[in-house]
Design goal:
This protein is α/β, with parallel strands linked by helices and about 150 residues long. It folds into 2 domains: about 100 residues, no CATH class; about 45 residues, no CATH class. Helices cover about 35% and strands about 15% of the residues. The protein is built from 5 helices and 5 strands, in the order βαβαβαβαβα. Helix 2 links the parallel strand 2 and strand 3. The two termini are about 15 Å apart.
């Protein structure tokens, strides 16, 4: 079973504006070692780490933590999409992930429906003729799960 949403934090490393006095009971480090026994006790095999602040640095830290932690299956991070350097930030994050073996596949049908061209994408994703067919094949042959937000 996968827990699709949890947070890690360390008030000694950064400020958390949402962690006011009413949450002082949790104002301490909460990392993977704190989470592991809770997952085991509740039959959770893997989990997704979700951002706690709007910070690319935190996103990078979570990606590093995920790479070293067997039960973290994914990271929901943050990038300022209004920043003039958003393309560079995304290219850097995607490049780091690709360097760790993460692949990016893009559905060619979606490209056509949205009037996008393969050349518009940063770095080197792979393209699949049909995302639906690809997902069905992964589910049938490799036991993948697909969760649509």
């Amino acid at each position: 079973m996968i827990d699709a949403h949890h947070h890690l934090w360390d008030p000694a490393r950064r400020e958390y504006p949402w962690m006011g006095d009413e949450l002082r009971v949790i104002r301490r480090r909460f990392g993977p070692d704190d989470l592991r026994p809770l997952l085991v006790d509740n039959g959770i095999d893997q989990t997704i780490v979700v951002q706690t602040v709007s910070s690319v640095d935190e996103t990078r830290e979570f990606l590093d933590t995920a790479a070293k932690t067997d039960f973290i299956a994914g990271v929901v991070g943050w990038v300022d999409l209004t920043s003039p350097s958003v393309a560079d930030q995304l290219a850097s994050l995607v490049g780091d992930l690709m360097g760790r073996g993460v692949g990016f596949e893009i559905c060619e049908i979606t490209l056509k429906n949205r009037n996008l061209k393969k050349e518009q994408f940063i770095l080197g994703p792979t393209f699949t003729p049909s995302g639906v067919v690809r997902i069905a094949k992964l589910q049938a042959e490799e036991h993948y799960a697909y969760i649509k937000p």
